[in-house]
Design brief:
Elements lengths: L6 E6 L4 H12 L2 E7 L4 H8 L6 E5 L5 H14 L4 E4 L15 H29 L2 E6 L12 H20 L5 E7 L7 H4 L6 H4 L6 H14 L3 E3 L2 H12 L2 H12 L10
Parallel strand pairs: 1-2, 1-4, 2-3, 4-5, 5-6, 6-7
Helix pairs in contact: 1-8, 3-4, 4-5
């Protein structure tokens, strides 16, 4: 009898953190992989993921650029139409919007988290819909549910991702393609170091979630066809509070966690 064809998954931001762990979830569930990142750690990730027996196609590309998105889409189409797409790549930048952060950093957040996400979805989702099946995961954040002082552009970008995912899910509800938004909280990755947020309460807390646990919850929600999933009880409580409180109160709660500890506007 012919061997059953393996499914194919694309994961962006797959060199480390949640993205790598998502790729690992797919690999351990008998998916072949296309994995993307822009950094040199991608090679090590590919070697590790290859231990699970499937094929792993690396595509090194910067998804904050149109050229990077288009090269990933072309490389994906050359392999085949994915059964699952996890658009996970994202970055942040901490600090006060006025006087604390740099425009070039915030522009790159918008180019990757917002423009790159939409561009890649625009190029890949039509083929899933035309085939009549597929699963799409967008990594949003619990930060998407309330204003995010001291990482204002990042939080706003994730609010965009959540809204976008929910809207596209509705549009595709009769197509056979499901869309799921993954909403992690503080996770033990290099995000806070790269975002220059190590001098914040949330950056220094030891109570961060394990990226492997986040990925497992996200993978299970994706395979179940859920519309969104919030990872962890404390994060669910945070989301519930954010939706119940006025936006000013939600912003104040966020600020307690994200304000730089040496900030002149309120040292911790």
């Amino acid at each position: 009898m012919p061997q059953e064809q393996r499914q194919l998954a694309l994961v962006t931001g797959a060199s480390s953190g949640i993205g790598y762990q998502l790729a690992k979830q797919f690999a351990t569930h008998d998916f072949d992989l296309i994995v993307n990142a822009e950094d040199d750690r991608l090679s090590a990730a590919v070697a590790a993921l290859g231990e699970y027996g499937g094929s792993v196609t690396p595509v090194k590309a910067d998804l904050s650029t149109a050229e990077g998105v288009e090269s990933l889409a072309s490389a994906t189409k050359a392999v085949g139409t994915p059964d699952a797409v996890a658009i996970n790549a994202g970055i942040g930048a901490g600090g006060a919007f006025v006087g604390g952060t740099r425009w070039q950093d915030e522009r790159r957040i918008l180019e990757l988290n917002v423009v790159g996400t939409v561009h890649l979805a625009k190029l890949l989702l039509p083929s899933l819909a035309a085939r009549g099946r597929g699963r799409v995961l967008f990594t949003a954040s619990v930060a998407s549910t309330a204003p995010g002082p001291f990482h204002a552009v990042y939080a706003a970008s994730k609010a965009f991702v959540l809204s976008f995912a929910e809207a596209v899910r509705y549009e595709l509800k009769d197509s056979g393609v499901s869309v799921t938004a993954l909403m992690p909280g503080a996770t033990d990755t290099d995000f806070f170091e790269r975002a220059d947020m190590m001098d914040t309460k949330i950056g220094q807390t030891d109570a961060k979630d394990d990226p492997a646990d986040v990925a497992r919850v996200g993978f299970d929600a994706l395979m179940a066809g859920d519309d969104h999933v919030v990872v962890g009880l404390k994060n669910k409580a945070q989301v519930a509070a954010a939706t119940a409180l006025p936006s000013t109160a939600g912003a104040a709660l966020q600020a307690k966690q994200t304000r730089p500890m040496d900030s002149e506007t309120g040292a911790s």
